[in-house]
Amino acid sequence: MLKTLIFLLFTLVSTLLFSQEKVKWIYSFNSESSTVQINAIIDEGWHLYSQYLDNEIGPVPTSITFKESRDYFIVGNTIEPESIKEYDENFEGELNFFKGEVTFIQKIKVKKYTTVKGVVTFMVCNDSMCLPPKDIEFTIKINK
Fold first, then answer.
1. Is 4's pLDDT higher than 50?
2. Across residues 94-104, what is the average pLDDT?
3. Which of 34, 61, 66, 89 is the most exposed, fewest CB within 10 Å of its CB?
4. Distances (CA, A) of 8 to 11, 47, 128, 129
5. Rounded distance, CA 76 to CA 102, Å?
6. How many whole angstroms separate alpha carbon 98 and alpha carbon 63?
7. CATH number of 22-142
């Protein structure tokens, strides 16, 4: 009986924690620089991992994938600002991550008015736990 009660309580707490959004994503197109800008606003106490992790020790790096189209093509790699680099006791290694807010920038060549679609894959952690990786689809209308 006690084991069942503990399991149900753990399941309820986990569901509540995992269902909360810790990152708000904002997508835009800057016509002057011809760049897609993907802005992440990260809840206080949480951090979002960089696209570039120095080692493969556990957390999922952020990745941005654009769907192929004849109306645009991607130029180079997605750029991110300098990240925080600290030792993480949970993963026992140096990790690159962001706190507060970060903007990822992708140069794009657009042939005409179009819609850019893609997926952001990311993982967030705080000092005591990590949430499972998540995929968020995005759509950006471009009126060039």
1. no
2. 96
3. 89
4. 5, 28, 21, 19
5. 19
6. 14
7. 2.60.40.1250
